């Protein structure tokens, strides 16, 4: 049997097991056992973190064992963990991810913590999403299960599809279907957004590898980008994105600028788990 020290964190109900070390420490089966909410700790994914060659890092394995390039809520949790554990100097630093480095600033350490993340610059280019379209999909027509939708495809370092007109009654079946749409070769996170004025929206996200989630940081950023690009929200102004787990503040700047996300992160408990050899 193998002992594993871990920390449990959550950001707006999007919960994670945080492990100091690299993803090579655990097998896919290990991660799935850990994330099992009935027979394990329970989590939307496992975050691996630490400092290598003087640089903080984060890698993400989803609850189903798949790899995610980036996780906005997870990054806030990792930033808080690195500060709480004294693994970094100060409260402003960069964290390397599989989607590139992201600047973070830990605003509050005491519960509930609050962290600002400079996310990567979004891209609507099909090759970046990736998506099989000849041109950027911006409020483009999509058909799924007999429903006609208009969607915007956005890369935040991971692929997102955002729609503002999906009927609530159809959302539960459309999320899993659109996630597996063949036009998205690496699958896609699907956001169902409803504007509540130019500065606020409600959002539900069906997340690759996790399903319906309480919150999705990159999904909130993608939805804000889609709102700005389609004229539903203002560029450079804060947008409150209210997810089932609570609100995030997102600011979308000029083309090529990084998206700024601010929201909570909370340490829940520390633990020790014994895994089979």
Global structural class: alpha+beta
Largest β-sheet summary: 17 strands, mixed
**What is the CATH topology classification name of the largest domain?**
Diaminopimelate Epimerase, Chain A, domain 1
- The quaternary organization reads as single chain
Structural description of this entry:
By secondary structure, the protein is of the alpha+beta class. It folds into 2 domains: 2-118 and 264-275, Diaminopimelate Epimerase, Chain A, domain 1 (Roll), CATH 3.10.310; 140-257, Diaminopimelate Epimerase, Chain A, domain 1. 17% of the residues lie in helices and 44% in strands. The chain has 4 helices and 17 strands. It has a 17-stranded mixed beta sheet that branches. It is globular, with a radius of gyration of 18 Å. The chain starts with a strand and ends with a strand. The mean pLDDT is 95.
């Amino acid at each position: 049997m193998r002992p594993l020290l871990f920390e449990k964190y959550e950001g707006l109900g999007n919960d994670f097991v945080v492990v100091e070390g690299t993803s090579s420490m655990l097998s896919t089966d290990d991660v799935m056992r850990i994330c099992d909410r009935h027979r394990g700790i329970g989590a939307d994914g496992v975050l691996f973190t630490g400092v290598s060659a003087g640089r903080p890092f984060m890698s993400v394995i989803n609850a189903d064992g798949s790899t995610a390039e980036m996780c906005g809520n997870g990054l806030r949790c990792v930033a808080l963990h690195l500060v709480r554990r004294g693994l970094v100097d100060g409260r402003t630093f960069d964290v390397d991810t599989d989607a590139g480095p992201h600047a973070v600033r830990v605003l509050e350490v005491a519960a509930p913590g609050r962290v600002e993340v400079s996310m990567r610059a979004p891209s609507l280019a099909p090759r970046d999403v990736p998506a099989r379209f000849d041109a950027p999909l911006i409020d483009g027509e999509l058909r799924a299960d007999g429903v006609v939708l208009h969607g915007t495809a956005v890369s935040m370092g991971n692929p997102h599809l955002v729609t503002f007109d999906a009927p609530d009654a159809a959302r539960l079946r459309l999320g899993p279907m659109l996630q597996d749409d063949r036009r998205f070769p690496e699958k896609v996170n699907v956001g169902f957004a409803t504007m509540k004025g130019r500065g606020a929206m409600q959002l539900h996200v069906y997340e690759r590898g996790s399903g319906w989630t309480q919150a999705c940081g990159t999904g909130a950023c993608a939805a804000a980008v889609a709102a700005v690009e389609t004229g539903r929200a203002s560029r450079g102004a804060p947008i409150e994105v209210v997810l089932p787990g609570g609100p995030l503040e997102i600011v979308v700047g000029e083309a090529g600028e990084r998206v700024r996300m601010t929201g909570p992160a909370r340490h829940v408990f520390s633990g020790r788990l014994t895994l089979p050899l």
